[in-house]
């Protein structure tokens, strides 16, 4: 039985204006986030991950244009919504955790008041009620000494504490979907684990769906049910995390896995992906072809479709066929 999709992106195409021309930076992206599930959107910097996330919210920069495609949330199309309609969705139905918590917070406003402000924007409560709700949210995200912390300013908090404040604000209106853009990038490893555990606890407690944008495969492995791998503006592979990571079908996914350190492979050093990441969508052919040792003429001439089983797909002319776990590790 097919899972119900809370968020459904179809044939998303995004362009950026450069001089008199519009250059594609996201091409034909299909992505689904089922109810109560966690999806990881992973790839190198510049692959288009954050652009996809911003397209969902209607928050693209002025020189970036959503050229075509649909973004449906709870069955309603968002790309045709007015700015006023989108403001009713942002925060209320879709919460966001941005990469830089310090930049996301007002530096001259107490952090507790910032959470309370979100509460008042989306709930019918008075100032005192919003304050009490904010304190409860701070406890829910495991912030210590809530009475003292409420009156602190962002610069007085650690990186992990600031991220918890941002998460508290993101769940203040009880959204159904939480978008997290590189939520642990600026944190040390121990705090990263704590924040990821918090997100998982909140997903379970509140019945949230979660879309995590990251370049870190370990985060996806730890926190996600489903993964979509992006390269140069396209999704090149998607499927259940365990299946994709144990038996990747695209050579880029296999290369990313080999480049990631793992305690499950003692004595095996990470191996970097050869070449440089493509900065733009390939107009034809596979963008990964110049870095792939399996590439031949068709790879440079014809763009591969994202095909396969309903649960595990890859966009590759010479997809990896595996019979067991990690049989792809030496395929390139």
List the total number of helices. 12
Radius of gyration: 21 Å
Instruction: Flag low-confidence runs.
Output: 324-332
Main sheet makeup:
8 strands, mixed
* Helix and strand sequence: EEEHEEHEHHHHHEHEHEEHHHEE
Query: How many strand segments?
Result: 12
Provide tags for this entry.
single chain; 332 residues; alpha/beta; eight-stranded mixed β-sheet; four-stranded antiparallel β-sheet; globular; disordered C terminus
Explain the overall architecture.
By secondary structure, the protein is an alpha/beta fold. The chain has a domain of 108 residues. Helices cover 32% and strands 23% of the residues. The chain has an eight-stranded mixed beta sheet, with helices on both faces. A four-stranded antiparallel beta sheet has the order 2-1-4-5, with helices on one face. Strand 11 and strand 12 form a beta hairpin. Helix 4 crosses helix 5, helix 4 packs parallel to helix 7 and helix 5 crosses helix 7. The longest helix has 18 residues. The radius of gyration is 21 Å and the shape is globular.
Summarize the model shown:
This protein has 332 residues and is an alpha/beta fold. The chain is built from 12 helices and 12 strands. The strands form 2 sheets. The chain has an 8-stranded mixed beta sheet with strand order 6-7-8-3-9-10-12-11, sandwiched between helices.
């Amino acid at each position: 039985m097919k899972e119900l999709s809370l968020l459904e992106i179809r044939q998303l195409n995004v362009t950026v204006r450069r001089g008199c021309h519009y250059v594609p930076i996201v091409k034909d992206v299909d992505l689904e986030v089922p109810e109560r599930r966690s999806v990881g959107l992973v790839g190198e910097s510049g692959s288009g991950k954050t652009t996809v996330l911003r397209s969902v919210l209607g928050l693209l920069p002025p020189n970036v244009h959503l050229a075509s495609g649909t973004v449906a949330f709870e069955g309603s199309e968002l790309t045709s919504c007015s700015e006023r309609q989108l403001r009713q969705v942002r925060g209320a139905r879709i919460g966001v955790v941005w990469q830089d918590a310090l930049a996301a917070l007002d530096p001259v406003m107490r952090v507790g008041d910032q959470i309370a402000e979100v509460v008042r924007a989306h709930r019918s409560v008075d100032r005192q009620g919003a304050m009490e709700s904010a304190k409860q949210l701070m406890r829910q995200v495991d912030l210590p000494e809530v009475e003292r912390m409420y009156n602190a300013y962002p610069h007085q908090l650690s990186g992990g504490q600031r991220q918890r404040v941002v998460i508290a604000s993101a769940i203040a209106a009880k959204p159904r979907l939480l978008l997290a853009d590189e939520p642990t990038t600026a944190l040390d490893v121990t705090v990263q684990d704590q924040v990821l555990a918090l997100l998982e606890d909140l997903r379970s407690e509140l019945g949230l769906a979660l879309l995590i944008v990251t370049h870190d495969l370990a985060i996806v492995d730890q926190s996600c049910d489903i993964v979509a791998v992006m390269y140069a503006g396209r999704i090149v592979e998607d499927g259940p995390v365990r299946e994709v990571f144990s038996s990747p079908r695209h050579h880029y996914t296999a290369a990313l896995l080999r480049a990631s350190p793992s305690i499950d492979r003692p004595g095996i050093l990470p191996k970097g992906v050869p070449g440089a990441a493509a900065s733009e969508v390939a107009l034809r052919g596979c963008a990964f072809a110049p870095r792939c040792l399996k590439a031949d003429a068709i790879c440079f001439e014809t763009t591969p479709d994202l095909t396969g089983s309903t649960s595990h797909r890859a966009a590759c002319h010479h997809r990896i066929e595996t019979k067991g776990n990690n049989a792809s590790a030496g395929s390139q």
